[in-house]
What we know:
mainly beta
Amino acid sequence: MNGNYIDITPYEALERMRQLTDVGVTFSFSFESLNKTQASSKGLVVVSRAILRQGLRDDQSNLSQQLVGYKDLDQDEAPRFFHIPLLMTFNEHKIKP
Length: 97
C-alpha cells in the first residue's frame, strides 16, 4: 500500500464488489456524480452500505459498460448507478488513479 492508496483499479474494485455482493456482504464506496444528460454533477457521493444490483444491458444504454447499478441500504431510494471511471474509494481506501 502506498499512502492511502491501494494498488487496485476501478475495475478490480468492481470485481471485489461483485464478490462481496455474491456472499451477502455490504461494502462502502464513493464516486464523483455525473449526469451526462444534464451535463451536471452533484459532487462526491458517499455510500456507507451498498450491494450491487443488475446493471443495464447494451441495448438499454450506450453507457452500459461503464454504469454500475447499486442499492444504498441506508437510503430508501430507487436503485442508483455510478460511472466506474469516477469511482474514488472502496471500503475507505482510495482507488489508485
